[in-house]
Write a structure and sequence with these properties.
This protein has helices spanning 7-14, 113-124; strands spanning 20-25, 41-46, 53-56, 62-64, 70-75, 80-84, 93-96, 99-102, 105-109. It has 131 residues and is an alpha+beta fold.
Length: 131
C-alpha cells in the first residue's frame, strides 16, 4: 500500500475499472470499523445525480459509497490493501457453537458452525468475497 495515496485518489483510480473491492466503513476520526457485513463489496462506478460514486455488486445493484466513513479498501481478488486509515482497527471475530463473536461478545447467530466460521473469516478480512 502506498501511504502517500489519498482516499480520493484511490477511489478515482477505481472508477469504472471493474476491479472488485471490499470497503470497511467506520469512524473517520478514530479509524475503528463499524463491523458492517452488508453492501460493502463491488466495483466503483459513477452515476449522475447527487450520489455520483456507487459501489455496484455483481447483480448490478448497489448504493452510494459513504466515502466520509471509509476506513479501509481492499482489492478483493489480490487481497491487497489499497487504502487504510492510519489508525484502522476492528473487532476480532471468532466462530463458536453456531455463533460469531466480536471481541468475545455475540455478534450474530448462524444456522450451522460452517456458516459461522465463514462469516467470522469474512469479517476478519481473511476471505473477501461473501458467498
Amino acid at each position: 500500500m502506498d501511504k502517500t495515496k489519498t482516499l480520493k485518489s484511490v477511489l478515482d483510480s477505481l472508477v469504472n475499472t471493474k476491479k472488485r473491492v471490499r470497503v470497511w466503513y467506520g469512524n473517520p476520526k478514530t479509524g475503528k470499523a463499524f463491523n458492517e457485513e452488508n453492501e460493502n463489496i463491488g466495483h466503483v462506478v459513477t452515476a449522475p445525480g447527487f450520489y455520483n460514486i456507487l459501489l455496484q455488486s455483481r447483480r448490478g445493484t448497489g448504493g452510494a459509497i459513504l466515502d466520509e466513513y471509509i476506513v479501509k479498501i481492499v482489492d478483493a481478488k489480490k487481497k491487497t490493501i489499497l487504502w487504510q486509515h492510519p489508525d484502522f482497527s476492528q473487532a476480532t471475530f471468532t466462530a463458536e457453537e453456531k455463533q460469531v463473536l466480536a471481541n468475545n461478545l455475540i455478534f450474530t447467530k448462524c444456522e450451522n458452525n460452517q456458516q459461522a466460521e465463514k462469516l467470522a473469516k469474512f469479517m476478519n478480512g481473511e476471505i473477501l468475497i461473501k458467498q
